[in-house]
Write a structure and sequence with these properties.
It is found in: Endoplasmic reticulum lumen. Belongs to the P4HA family. It contains 17 helices and 20 strands. With 534 residues, the chain is of the alpha+beta class. The protein has three domains: 98 residues; 110 residues, Tetratricopeptide repeat domain (Serine Threonine Protein Phosphatase 5, Tetratricopeptide repeat); 261 residues, q2cbj1_9rhob like domain (Jelly Rolls), CATH 2.60.120.620. The protein has a nine-stranded antiparallel β-sheet with strand order 3-4-5-17-13-20-11-10-6, with helices on one face. α1 packs antiparallel against α3 and α4 crosses α6. The N terminus is likely disordered. The structure holds 2-oxoglutaric acid and fe (ii) ion. 2-oxoglutaric acid binds next to β18 and β20. The site of fe (ii) ion (FE2) has 3 residues, from loops.
């Protein structure tokens, strides 16, 4: 189980640490009383010997003294020896070892996971190492300081995981935070060596050369550095000049209008708020009470907020109740498992999706059936053709990269889709069961919409075109959590027997690919621009 993907387990191991502190205290106490006893004995023996010295040779004339010396050298010293030999604090040590071996205790991979999560936050929200190191996360001050060694650890992992920009800045921060003293002397060459590697990866050859000189100055005897430096000079082969400087930025530039970017980049820029809908795109959006889909709603209309018209994306406010959330939390306790993603032919644990989740059938509790009746009222869909209820919890750094909820044909063909007879996922209802302190929004890069989790609200969108073809514009992802914990519930509605339920659309949305849709949009925009000129 991964430590970093769940706040709820962190709370548990945090409690274990409290116990570990108790055992450590007990260990110290036990050893302390042993040491106190030995110290007292030492002093007694010294006093007795001092007295003996004062007597001089006459000391041994007294049978009493002879006895006392013998007693000391046999029984008393034996006691001391025994005591010195026994391992005090054995019991607390054994208990400590037991807690440390608990299956929930984080392992080295979890430590790496925590750093990985931190680097993800840094990448997505474009944070600076120097801010993170002083506990400043996206404008909020957590007043936690990282020391030089922490920064070096992070730099190491950043470089290993192919983030040379971040490795560069974390190394600089590690240098910045070097204290005076022996430990720092040991760290400095390690940091410089890492900085050299980062600069090499970034093509900053002049900077690299300078850092090498510095490194060779403090560790002139290191054959390894000298060898590396030689092979570096050799590799340059005259092709690249040592004067080649490169200004190193901590993050890649924000793309300009019209630049082609990767899907992941689009997801990140939506999470960080760099992609937003334009006022023009928002102009036609409405919000208000909705009472059309079901007569029940005439009595209790839904508060709906349109976030996109095409494709449709609606946020419903206050559609789940605290009592229901309480029941859900009880139902899901101890059932959460690390999330997987579906790769070509199997389900795998992946860093693309760091959360924990579980599925519950609607029959598990009447609360789930109640929720489904509400979803049916909201969406007008027949909830008989829906998957089991999915509940997910994201911890700090937890996220789910950009994806589409609908399945590609190859997934059906490979038998990876549960209940394939119910068809594809025609629509999604995503309930927010918690607020999130910082980060953790749901990003729709193509719509440039960022939904901030709002407890009791639910997002609703159609995944498929009215034709049944998957709509790539519905691509979305869960942004990493900076602080807090996020709970969501997914209702994935399948297309079977819904053909009469989906509202009839007046616009042609049956285009299959994003390229085709963008092409059409371009044409429409050109037409609108032309009509404005005329
Ligand atoms: O948690 C979120 O914000 C989105 C979750 C999601 O997209 C999914 O589980 O498919
Ligand atoms: Fe999704």
């Amino acid at each position: 189980r991964e430590f970093f993907s769940s706040v709820h387990e962190m709370t548990k191991v945090f409690g274990y640490e409290q116990r570990m502190l108790g055992y450590m205290q007990k260990f110290l106490d036990d050893n302390q009383s042993k040491l106190d006893f030995l110290k007292a004995r030492l002093r007694e023996f010294e006093v007795e010997r001092e007295e003996a010295r004062e007597w001089g040779a006459a000391y041994f004339d007294s049978p009493l003294n002879k006895y006392l010396l013998n007693k000391r050298l046999t029984v008393d010293w034996q006691l001391v020896e025994n005591l010195m030999e026994t391992h005090s604090g054995k019991k607390p040590l054994a208990r400590l070892q037991k807690v440390m071996g608990h299956k929930l205790m984080p392992k080295k991979t979890e430590l790496e996971g925590a750093i990985d999560g931190l680097l993800r936050l840094q990448t997505v929200y474009r944070l600076e190492a120097k801010d993170i190191a002083r506990g400043m996360l996206d404008g909020t001050d957590y007043s936690t300081q990282l020391n030089s060694e922490h920064c070096l650890d992070i730099a190491r992992l950043a470089l290993r995981d192919k983030h040379p920009r971040l490795a560069h800045f974390w190394s600089l921060e590690a240098l910045q935070r070097l204290a005076s003293g022996k430990q720092s002397e040991e760290l400095k060459p390690q940091i410089l060596a890492l900085l050299v590697e980062a600069k090499a990866a970034l093509g900053d050859y002049r900077g690299l050369n300078e850092t090498y000189q510095e490194l060779l100055k403090i560790q002139p005897a290191s054959e390894e550095h000298a060898r590396n430096y030689d092979s570096f000079l050799e590799a340059l082969g005259g092709e690249i000049s040592l004067n080649e400087t490169k200004a190193v930025e901590e993050h890649p530039p924000i793309p300009k209008e019209g630049d082609t970017i990767s899907d992941f980049h689009g997801y990140m820029l939506t999470c960080s708020g760099h992609f937003r809908p334009t006022p023009r795109e928002q102009r036609d959006l409405r919000c208000g009470y909705m009472d059309e889909t079901h007569p029940f709603l005439w009595i209790a209309p839904l508060k709906a907020e349109e976030l996109s018209r095409d494709p449709l994306l609606i946020l419903y406010h206050d559609v789940i109740y605290q009592s229901e959330i309480d029941t859900i939390r009880k139902l899901t306790t101890n059932k959460l498992k690390r999330a997987t993603i579906t790769s070509t032919n199997e389900s795998v644990v992946s860093n693309v999706r760091t959360s924990q989740f579980t599925f519950l059938p609607v029959t598990e509790d009447k609360v789930l059936a109640t929720i489904d009746r509400r979803v049916a009222d909201m969406t007008n869909f027949n909830m008989r053709y829906a998957e089991d209820h999915q509940f997910a919890n994201y911890g700090i750094g937890g996220h789910y990269g950009q994806h589409m909820d609908w399945f590609y044909q190859p997934s059906f063909d490979a038998g990876l889709v549960s209940s394939p007879e119910m068809g594809n996922r025609i629509a999604t209802v995503l309930f927010y069961l918690s607020d999130v302190t910082q980060g953790g929004g749901t990003a729709f890069p193509h719509l440039r919409v960022l939904l901030k989790p709002k407890k009791y609200a639910a997002a609703f969108w159609y995944n498929l075109h009215a034709s049944g073809v998957g709509d790539p514009r519905t691509q979305h992802g869960a942004c990493p959590i900076i602080s807090g914990s996020k709970w969501v519930q997914n209702r994935w509605i399948r297309e079977f027997i819904q053909s009469d339920r989906r509202p009839c659309l007046t616009w042609d949305d049956s285009l299959a690919t994003l390229a085709e849709i963008r092409e059409l949009e371009k044409k429409l925009n050109a037409k609108e621009a032309a009509s404005q000129i005329a």
